Amino acid sequence: MSNHTFTRRGFLGAASASALSLVLSACGGSQSQTTGTNAAATADYTLVKEGTLTVASDLDFPPLDSFEGGEAKGFDVDLSKAIGKKLGLEVEYLPPTNFDAIIPMIKQGGKADIGNSAFSITEERKAEIDFTDAYLDSNLGIAVKSDSDAKTEEALNVADKKIAVQSGTTGEAYAKENMGSATIVPLTTVTECMAGLSTGHYDAVCADLPVIGNMCTVSFTDCEVAKEIPTGEQYGIVVSKDNPGLTAAINAALAEMESDGTMAELKEKWFGATA
Fold first, then answer.
1. At 27, is the pLDDT very low, low, confident or very high (cuts 50, 70, 90)?
2. Do 18-137+234-271 and 138-232 show the same overall fold?
3. What span, in angstroms and rounded, lies between the C-alpha atoms of 164 and 59?
4. Interval 146-195: pLDDT, tens
5. Are 189 and 98 in contact (CB under 8 A)?
């Protein structure tokens, strides 16, 4: 498919399952058998709540996903809703869940059907869960204060600098590999990283380019993106290995969305581009 170029988060290992308690009471613990149908394919799959596609996300990654006024919003959220429409399912988001707890949640089962939170497709993750086909291409970026004297990797890769990253992401992995002379500070959300950068606690943030770019424009206007890192990653939706029928049904829905213009409309809405 033709994908827009953005950035995504990677998986660094098994994470704490403490955030598994952050679920809606309506989700329950038992799975129900559901037959899903869209125009492209018919597949059998299980859902934690009959007639509903239950989605886990950290909802703190605008413009991909965010939690505003008690509602889930963003490109990934609209994508989930469009997939649900293709499958004839309601779409329900769990309360915001720590990013690094979502894959363990999907692997364990019983709480959410999919994880849709700007997940990078990596071999490490594939060992734990299945991915749908990719729906966006990705890069990373480095944000700094606009008045900073250190705006290059070389200037930031020194012992007295602190680089904030979101825990369990490709941004964290990149920073550790390429800026290891600095102190790498893992935090729960990108918002925390950017807030710390703005207030002078950190010297830079390494995270997904569209997200830090959006935050520099909208929320942290005293910061700027100093560098784009062409990591060439791709986003995919996380599904349990025990639910291959759901992966197949979502792939058919994504293909249909590419062919009928739905994907282009979503990209135009959230990114101002369709290519």
1. very low
2. yes
3. 19
4. 999 999 999 999 999 999 999 988 899 999 999 999 999 999 999 999 99
5. no
Residues 76-89 pLDDT 10s: 999 999 999 999 99
- For the whole model, what pTM was predicted? 0.76
CA distance 215 to 212: 5
18-137+234-271 is classed in which CATH architecture? 3-Layer(aba) Sandwich (3.40)
Answer yes or no: CATH 3.40.190.10 is held by domain 138-232: yes
Question: Predicted confidence band at 210 (pLDDT cuts at 50, 70, 90)?
Answer: confident
Q: Quick one: 125 exposed, middle or buried, by C-beta within 10 A (0-12, 13-18, 19+)?
A: buried
CB 56 within 8 A of CB 19: no
Arithmetic mean of pLDDT, 114-122: 94
In the chain, domain spans:
18-137+234-271, 138-232
